[in-house]
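Project outcomes to date are best conveyed with an example. Our students and postdoctoral researchers have been running inverse folding experiments weekly, and each run begins with a structure described purely in tokens. The record below, which covers 156 residues, was selected by the lab manager from last quarter's runs and is presented without edits.
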């Protein structure tokens, strides 16, 4: 199972990055700052949130689509060279989705490095069904250590 190592003590960005590089070496990353610069440009990618419903309702990146599996992406995006950025809480679930989309022939898929946690920690805009928010779903207590506690919310 891909996530089995995360049960070990000592979660850190360095350990996550090392494991993601080992598990998904071909998945290119995009930094939060680079993605922020692409918003509103002609090369703005389709941004896909692969988190669970309860995470998505708390907050999401601007204009993010909530698509939890590759089948939903394939149904929505027929053009295989469409620029796509996927994200989750820390980047592991989205790396798996990016790899799956690449395996299906999508040629321009990138994973948001450290995903919504990095985006939120940098103070970048987050939205929910009511508008702007400053909160993010920390996934659980263990993973929540990777994002500022001031940003934690389990429900909108």
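After processing, the design step wrote out the following sequence:
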């Amino acid at each position: 199972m891909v996530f089995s190592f995360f049960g070990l003590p000592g979660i850190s960005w360095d350990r996550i990055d090392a494991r993601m590089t080992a598990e998904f070496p071909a998945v290119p990353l995009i930094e939060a700052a680079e993605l922020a610069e692409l918003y509103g440009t002609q090369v703005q990618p389709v941004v896909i949130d692969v988190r669970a419903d309860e995470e998505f309702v708390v907050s999401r990146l601007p204009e993010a689509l909530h698509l939890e599996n590759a089948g939903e992406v394939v149904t929505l995006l027929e053009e295989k060279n469409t620029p796509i950025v996927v994200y989750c809480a820390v980047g592991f679930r989205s790396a798996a989705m990016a790899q799956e989309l690449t395996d299906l022939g999508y040629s321009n898929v990138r994973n948001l490095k450290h995903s919504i946690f990095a985006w939120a920690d940098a103070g970048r805009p987050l939205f929910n069904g009511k508008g702007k928010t400053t909160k993010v779903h920390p996934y659980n207590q263990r993973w929540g250590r990777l994002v500022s506690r001031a940003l934690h919310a389990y429900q909108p």
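Residues 1-5 have pLDDT under 50 and may be disordered. Helices lie at 13-23, 32-38, 53-56, 70-76, 92-103, 115-121, 141-144. The training component of this project remains on track.
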